[in-house]
Amino acid sequence: MSQHSRQHVLGQHSLSQMRRYDPEAIAQHYRARPWQVLWRAVSIAWMFAGFLLGLQIDQWRGQTGDHHLWRAAQLRRILTRLGPTFIKVGQALSTRPDLIRKDFLDELVKLQDKLPPFPNDIAFSIIAAELERPVSELYQDISPEPVAAASLGQVYKAKLYTGETVAVKVQRPRLMPVITLDLYLLRWAATWMEPFLPLNLGHDLTLIVDEFGTKLFEEIDYLNEGRNAEAFAANFQDDPTVKVPAIYWRYSSQHVLTLEWIDGCKLNDESGLCAMNLDPDTVIKIGVTSGLRQLLEFGFFHADPHPGNLFAMADGRMAYIDFGMMDQLDQSTKETLVDSVVHLINEDYAEMARDFVKLGFLTPDTDIRPIIPALQAVFQNAVGASVGNFNFRTVTDEFSALMYEYPFRLPAKFALIIRSLITQEGLALSLNPDFKIVEVAYPYVAQRLLKGETPALRRRLLEVLFKDGKLNWKRLENLIAIARSDNSFDLLPTAQLGLQYLMSDEGAFLRREIILALTEDDRLHTDDVQRLWELVKNDFQPGRLVSAAWGAIARETSDRAAALLPSVATLLVPRSEDQTR
Q1: Terminus-to-terminus CA distance in the chain, angstroms?
Q2: Which residues contact 361 (CB under 8 A, 6 or more apart)?
Q3: By the 8 A CB rule, do 142 and 128 touch?
C-alpha cells in the first residue's frame, strides 16, 4: 500500500477499507492510539492471569480433579471473548489430544462451529446490503437461527428459488479492528521475544506473524474463498473420494458466501462415522492422501483442516467446506518435499540434511556433516512408529534440543504447512492413536515415483534407485513392495509407463545402467536377473518382457548384452512358454 493510501485510510480513522495485510499501515494506525493498544494488552494479560491463578489455587486446595470441567469451560469462554485470533489458537489446540486433556479438549472442540452467534437481524441486514436485495427475494427459505457459528462468521441453511439447498455464510461485523489490533500486538510480542528464544527459533518470527496476517486477511474476503474453492475442486475433479461444494456466485459477495449444502458428520465424530458404517482408518487415509496430494502434487493446500472444516459423507467421500486459509507452493518446494519423504524412508540422512538446506531450514553455508547424526537420532524410528508414538510434537521436542546446537530456523512459508500437518495429525490421533501416517504417506510417494508422470519425478526415481553409481535392487524392491501395500495400486500400467520410458531417448542412461548392473565384469549376475524377474513376473507375459525390454537395452549398450540374451531367456522364460513361441 502506498503512503498516500495509508494516509487516506488513517485519515478516515478506520481500517475497514484495507483489503490486504499491511503491517506498516497497521502499526502507524495503532501508534497514534496507545491507550487502545494498552487496554487490549492488559485485557489479554488479565484474563489469562486469572485463569492460570485459578489452576494454581485448585492445585493448592487439592481440587484439581473437581474443577477441571469448570476450568475447561472458563478457558473456552476466555478465548471466545478475546475474539477471532485467539479462537483460531483454540481451534488448533482442539485437534491435539496428545497436548490437551480430554476434558479441556471437549470444550475447545466447541470453538470450531459452536461459538455464540451474533443477532439474526444484523446478519440478515448484512446479506441484504451485500447482495442488494431483501433476504426473502434471495432465498425461498432460510433457517431462523444459524446452524453453525465460527470465529469469522456464521452459517444458515437456506433454499434457493431454483430448488437447491445451500449454506449461507455471513461474516461477523467489525472484524477488522479486532484482527488488526491483535496482529499488531502479536508482531510486537514476536519482536520482543526473539532475543530470548533458542538459536534461530525466533529467526524472522515477525515474518511468521506477517504470513498469518496475510492469510487472515485473505480469509475474511469471501470472494477470494470462492475462487479458492473452485481452484481446489479443479485439482480434485478426478478424485472420487473428495467432495468440494459448488459456489453460487449470484448470491455471494465479499462478506456473504452461498455454497452447496453438504450432508455429513465431522471427521472426529466417531458415533456419526459408525452410524454411516464408515471405517475411521479409511477416513483418515482419505484425509492424509488428499493432504499429500495438495502439498506434493498440486502445491495448493488447505491450511486450516480442523474437523469443523472436514466432513465425512454417507457415500464415503470426504468434503472440504472452508477455503479461506489456503497457500501455494512452488514447483521446486514440491519436488524437495517429495525428496525428503523418500530420503526419510531410505534413511538417507545426508540427503535429508541437504533437503533442509533447500527448504530454508538451514542456510546454504551451514556445515551439514555434524547435523547428519543428529537427524538420524530424531528420525530413525519414524517409519515404524504410530502417530501416537512418533508425531510432530515428538519431532518438535527433539528438535528443540538441536536448536541450541545447530542453526535450524523455521521459514515463514512453512508455518502454515506445519500447522496443516499438525492439524491433520491431531485428527488421526483422535480417531485412531495407532494409525501409522508414514505408512500411508510413503506408498503414495512410491506410486508417484514409479509412475513417473513428469521428467522431474523420473529423475528422482533414478536418484532413489542408484547409489554410488550402481543400481540398488533393494530400493527398487522396497518401492514396489510398499506401493503394492495399497490394494488400489495396479502395477501393470505403471510398469508399462516404465517400459515406455526405458525405450525412449530419455531412458538411455537407465538402459545402460541396467545392463551394466546385470553384466558387470563381463559375466551375467544371475542373482540380480532373478531378483528383477521376481519383481515383474506376476504382471507381464515373460516372453513379451524379454523380447521388448532386453532388445531395447541391447541396442543401446555393448555387444555383451546381445551375447547374453540366450542366458537371460533361459533364466527368465519357462521352457513351455519358449516352445509355444
Answers
A1: 75
A2: 408, 409, 410, 411, 414
A3: no
- Order of all β-strands in the sheet with 318-320: 242-243, 318-320, 310-312, 265-266
* β-sheet bridge partners, residue 326: 302
For 560-564, the CB contacts below 8 A with 24+ separation are: 560/519, 560/522, 561/515, 561/519, 564/518, 564/519, 564/524
Task: Determine which of 373-387, 418-432, 532-546 has the lowest per-residue pLDDT on average.
Answer: 532-546
Q: Where are the beta strands (DSSP E) in 331-398?
A: none
Residue entry with cell 504447512? 417
- In a 3-state reduction of DSSP, which class is residue 313? coil
Provide the CA 78 distance to its chain's centre, in angstroms. 29
- CA 116, CA 80: separation in Å to the nearest integer? 8
> Residue 351 — very low, low, confident or very high, per pLDDT cuts 50/70/90?
confident
Nearest CA among 372, 383, 377, 378 for reference residue 346: 383
d(CA 88, CA 175): 14
The amino acid present at 557, given as its one-letter code, is T
CA dihedral 379, 381, 387, 393 (to 10 degrees): -40
Burial of 570 (0-12, 13-18, 19+ CB in 10 A): exposed
- In angstroms, what CA-CA distances link 11 with 24, 28, 39, 179? 15, 12, 23, 20
Rounded to two decimals, what is the model's pTM?
0.72
Residue type, 163: G
Phi, psi of 64 (to 5 degrees): -60, -50
Decide: residue 522, CB within 10 A, 0-12 exposed, 13-18 middle, 19+ buried.
Answer: exposed
Q: How far apart are CA 209 and CA 187, in angstroms?
A: 6
Question: Could you tell me the CA-to-CA distances from 57 to 50, 64, 243, 277, 325 in Å, in that order?
Answer: 10, 9, 49, 46, 39
Give the active site residues: 304
Confidence at 234, pLDDT banded by 50, 70, 90: very high
Query: Please, what sign has the CA dihedral across residues 306, 312, 318, 322?
Result: negative
* 312-339: burial string, b at 16+ Cβ within 10 Å, e else: bbeeebbbbbbbbbbbebeeebbbbbbb
What does the pLDDT look like over 471-497, one tens digit per residue? 666 666 666 666 666 555 555 555 555
- The C-alpha atoms of residue 397 and residue 327 are separated, in whole angstroms, by 26
Amino acid letter for position 487: N
- pLDDT value, residue 375: 82
Whose CA is closest to 113, among 84, 138, 148? Answer: 148
